Amino acid sequence: MELNKIKSVFFIGIGGIGMSALARYFKFLGKNVGGYDKTPTQLTDELVEAGIDIHFEDNLDLVDAVYKDKETTLVVVTPAIPKSHSEWNYYINEGFDIRKRSEVLGLITKDTYCFAVAGTHGKTTTTSILGHLLFQAKVDVTAFVGGVVENYQTNLIGSGTTVTVVEADEFDRSFLRLYPDTACITSTEADHLDIFGTAEEMLVAFNDFANKVEDKTKFFKTECVDLDGIKVGFGEDCSYKIENIRIDNGWYIFDIITPKERIVNVRFGLPGRHNLSNALVAFAMAYTYGVDPKVLVEGLESFQGVRRRFSYKIRRDNFIYIDDYAHHPTEILAVSQAVHELYGDKKVVAVFQPHLYSRTKDFMNEFASALSTFEHVVLLDIYPARELPIEGVTSTALLEGVTSKVKVVLQKEELVPYLRASNAELVLTIGAGDLGEMVEDIKKGLE
Questions:
Q1: Would you list the DSSP string of 18-34?
Q2: Which residues of 223-277 form beta strands (DSSP E)?
Q3: Measured between alpha carbons, how far is 155 from 158 in angstroms, rounded to an integer?
């Protein structure tokens, strides 16, 4: 398939965070772009505002004729779509060129200088910081981000054609379809064991990804990653490291040590040591590419974060509401560390919606331990996404292992009244399910 011969692109599952970034990209290129999704969301509303045609009923009659020309139409499908989907089956039966999102990203990156960001945790934040740094440096870049970047209010940064920044997703081994020139791995903790089977098999896939970078001086990894590469972090043996960390009015101020120089009094506004690590990895990748360190320092200070990554929804002296996408025990611990570092004296209520039955089953004890770092925990029912229930795997079962002083399982409609009555000084919502669609209603209820 040659992308320059494609006139129309139809997305089945266009509302996904990765799919919607691709949709925006092809719209920038002047293609006809349309698609289907199951339900309207904030993301699909924003795509419609951008001039993209979307419908929410599986009905071939709603598909415009421009997307029924087999010679000029590319169809992109998400794995979450059921095999019974009639529009998908139409395209299969008619012999259209149908690709997964990862395959399309691979085709795009093959003809560009590609920065690829992999890792169980930290992909989205690191990708968005790197995309922001390169864009601010006026590099001819397009960054495909798995979240909405607050600076741009979109999940696509730039519209360049020679340089790309992509999240290298390990799910379904998608990252092995990319062509990275510079890459990093932020973490390799076990996840997606429904795909890999074991943590060891997942590490093999990460190693295969690392080996796709031909110039090993352009492969970076954090201290927790046990693979060969340029080490980035806080330790003495790191090639790029952070020293002299201070906190001033909600900002981190620190020095960055590179193999060539010390850069002092760098300012960065995202909370948590994990975000300092993400920022350092992005800095190292852009620095190696040749971006002026002064521009990188300015870029780090101006970066505003990613929607649903420690996003302040309400920030008053007497009350704070923070929302975060954390859906793995290590991510919850990172959020907890940031909350306690910044607001250790406040009464915190943490609301968590587990994502996937399989992940909850695989990490039941780890989730319970991470959640127990909060004194007051509220659980919502597990968000199934693509999965069917697993016997015995429920939020009630998870709650039994949580040792918090106050703990409860609630239905969605009970949540806002409960939070209003809790006298919390800080409310934290965490999870990757449809909790994200509830955030604005929760905010209104708490205001």
A1: HHHHHHHHHHHTT-EEE
A2: 230-233, 240-248, 251-257, 262-268
A3: 10
Nearest by Cα to 298 from 49, 129, 54, 118? 129
CB 129 within 8 A of CB 117: no
* Calpha distance 364→218 (Å, rounded): 37
- Given CA atoms 129, 135, 136, 138 in this order, what sign does their dihedral have? positive
- Is residue 156 within 8 A of residue 143, CB to CB? The reply is yes
Strand partners, 352: 379, 430
Whole-angstrom distance, CA of residue 212 vs CA of residue 110? 12
Closest CA to 431 of 345, 359, 346, 341: 359
Contacts of 316 (CB under 8 A, 6+ apart): none
- Tell me if 150 sits within 8 A of 172, measured CB to CB: no
Beta 320-324 vs 311-315: how paired, if at all? antiparallel
As averages over each run of 10 residues, the pLDDT of the chain (447 residues) reads 86 93 94 95 92 96 96 92 93 96 89 94 94 98 92 93 92 85 89 69 90 95 91 96 89 96 96 91 98 98 90 90 93 92 91 96 96 98 91 97 97 97 96 92 95
Helix or strand run (H / E) with residue 357: helix 357-362
Tens-place pLDDT, residues 224-258: 888 999 999 999 999 999 999 998 877 899 999 99
Helices 42-49/17-28 angle, 10° precision: 10
* Spatial contact of 276 and 241, defined as CB atoms under 8 Å apart: no
Q: Nearest Cα to 399, choosing from 427, 423, 377? A: 377
192-228: b (≥16 Cβ within 10 Å) or e: bbeebeeeeebbebbeebbebbeeeebbbbbebbeee
Helix axes 123-136, 273-289, angle to 10 degrees: 40
Separation of CA 109 from chain center: 19
Which residue in this structure is represented by tokens 């200088």? 113
Terminal CA-to-CA distance of the chain, rounded, Å? 51
